[in-house]
Amino acid sequence: MTRPRKPQSPFRYFHSSPELIRLVVMMYVRFPLSLRNVEDLLFERGIDICHETVRHWWNRFGPMFASEIRRRRVSRMRGFRQWKWHLDEMYVKLNGEMVYLWRAVDHEGEILESYVTKKRDKSAALAFMKKALKRHGQVDAIVTDVLRSYPAAMRDLGNLECREMGKWLNNRAENSHLPFRRRERAMVRFRRMKTLQKFASVHANVHNHFNHERHLIDRQTFKERRSAALAEWQALAS
To answer: How many CB atoms within 10 Å of residue 105?
Structure first.
């Protein structure tokens, strides 16, 4: 009887430790720091790496960590059906050209999906909603703004009756843009749609993982949740 092969470590070709790689990716994606900011902070702690190494590590391991975080969350939430989604789009400048970052946020403030398009029409809204529904399942209510692309796309999907719209109802999605805006300023904008799509997806999942809503809980509960999230992060891809 042959033994099942143990999956190879994704860190096997790297001389640096997995703990250091996870730390670098977390610092760069989670906090509004530039590549050189991360390099300088690590050098102050006795770790000498180049800012291009930071860029290579987040490009290589960021999507892998984000995918594992998203997979675990989706598997836990698949059976939960009392969902209310908040959909919104924000503009992002890409080499002087305006593109749109669509985002789906659940009723707890966690970002479910990020999707970049050049237009803000029905076909873009339809592609975005199909992607979100395929990954996360059906939803009870969808809150949108007055953009007419949403009802046009929902009419094709057959869930127009789930739509909700009203003043201040979509503040959940509007406020979810703020961490990404802070991160965008630190990166001095984006240059390619592929990079924007990758970073938006990675940033959303890392933000979800470390978002403990500290203003709603007591200090002791916050410390326990923070420690649990950090322990789970340190075990990713191990």
So the answer is: 25
Digitized pLDDT (tens) for each residue of the chain, 238 residues in all: 566 666 788 888 888 999 999 999 999 999 999 999 999 999 999 999 999 999 999 999 999 999 999 988 877 776 666 678 999 999 998 888 899 999 999 888 889 999 999 999 999 999 999 999 998 888 889 999 999 999 999 999 999 999 998 878 888 888 888 889 988 888 877 888 999 999 999 999 999 999 888 888 899 999 999 999 999 999 888 7
Alpha-carbon gap, residue 221 to 226, rounded angstroms: 9
- Strands of the sheet containing 141-143, edge to edge, are 111-117, 97-105, 84-94, 141-143, 163-164
Residue 231 burial (10 A CB sphere; 0-12, 13-18, 19+): exposed
Yes or no: say if 236 and 22 are a contact pair by the CB < 8 Å rule.
yes
Q: Using alpha carbons, list the distances in angstroms from residue 54 to 14, 33, 112, 231.
A: 13, 11, 26, 22
Angle, CA of 178, 236 and 204, to the nearest 5°: 15
Q: How far is CA 121 from the centre of its chain?
A: 23
Amino acid at 139: V
